[in-house]
Amino acid sequence: QVQLVESGGGLVQAGGSLRLSCAASGSISSINAMGWYRQAPGKQRELVAVMTSGSITSYADSVKGRFTISRDNAKKTMYLQMNSLKPEDTAVYYCHYYWVAGRVDYWGQGTQVTVSS
Q1: Which of 37, 54, 78, 115 has the fewest Cβ atoms within 10 angstroms?
Q2: Contact, 71 vs 54, CB < 8 A?
Q3: Which residues, at least 6 apart from 64, have a Cβ–Cβ distance to it below 8 Å?
Q4: Over the chain (117 residues), what is each successive 10-residue block's mean pLDDT?
Q5: The sheet that has 77-82: what strands, in order across it?
Q6: What is the DSSP letter of 60?
Q7: 81: which residues sit within 8 A by CB, 6+ positions away?
Q8: Is 37 in contact with 94 (CB distance < 8 Å)?
């Protein structure tokens, strides 16, 4: 089992920055992928950024150049640095962990990010 706890969400003005954190606990495999998803009201959950245990990253086009995903494996923590925030970034942001060998997904409870114009 893996538990994920997000933090760092909040209210920020357009153009501002926030850093989200996701602390993982439990049985963390050495081969995995961790990422951030978001879901705005009335919309489907979408991938924001993902980083594999091999440090390969991928970003949604809408956040490229503004968001940066990183991991501290020693602390079992993942981060999402969000700069130049826009009102359309407003959503609940979820931490995601994928255990490759077991093909199992784990999700955090989500943290709200609200960007005012």
Answers
A1: 54
A2: no
A3: none
A4: 95 98 90 94 96 94 98 93 98 95 92 97
A5: 2-7, 18-26, 77-82, 67-72
A6: -
A7: 17, 19, 67, 68, 69, 70
A8: yes
